Amino acid sequence: DDGGAMAGGLILGDLAGLISAMGYGTYTVLIRSLCPRDEDKYSMQLLLGYIGVINGIGLLPIALKVAFWGDCPGGDNDGVPGGEPHPLAFDISSSCEKISALVLMYLIGKALADNVLSDYLWARAVVLTSATVATVGLGLTIPLAFASDWLLGRA
């Protein structure tokens, strides 16, 4: 029954969204409560560096596998009894290809220039103001993006 599988997928998606929101809220409150305002007592760069190293070590095997072998994790049905895919599974292997070294360098450059900078500025805003103000400011980026697209005629 496709309706039951779809409802299960919706519930699973809602649950994943709820868990990620709780994790984000916990992360924000911990930054605010554990990091003092005086940067002489701690280093925001070091904190974000440790988070990056932990994520890098944990996700490096998956990134290398996709980058050099073109295999997508979860793209096949190996190990599934009877070869039947799970009702909530989908095939992503057709969209994964090997990426060139140039594209990998562009991805790393974009990550450093975009994600690292925005995370650093957001974490500083949490420490200097409050978790609520920083989160509201982050949430305002969506309507401001819509407004800028409308003003530039791209909406």
Number of helices: 5
The first-to-last residue Cα distance is: 39 Å
Largest β sheet strand count, sense and barrel closure: none
User: What string, H for helix and E for strand, traces the elements in order?
Assistant: HHHHH
Uncertain residue ranges = 77-81, 88-94
Summarize the structure in words:
It is a single chain. The protein is an all-alpha fold. It contains five helices and no strands. Helix 1 (2-34) packs across helix 3 (101-128), helix 2 packs antiparallel against helix 3 and helix 3 (101-128) crosses helix 4 (131-139). The chain is extended.
SSE arrangement:
Blueprint: H1 2-34, H2 44-69, H3 101-128, H4 131-139, H5 141-151
Keywords:
155 residues; 5 helices; mainly alpha
Q: What is the structure about, briefly put?
A:
The chain has 155 residues and is mainly alpha-helical. It has 5 helices and no strands. Helix 1 (2-34) packs across helix 3 (101-128), helix 2 (44-69) packs antiparallel against helix 3 (101-128) and helix 3 crosses helix 4.
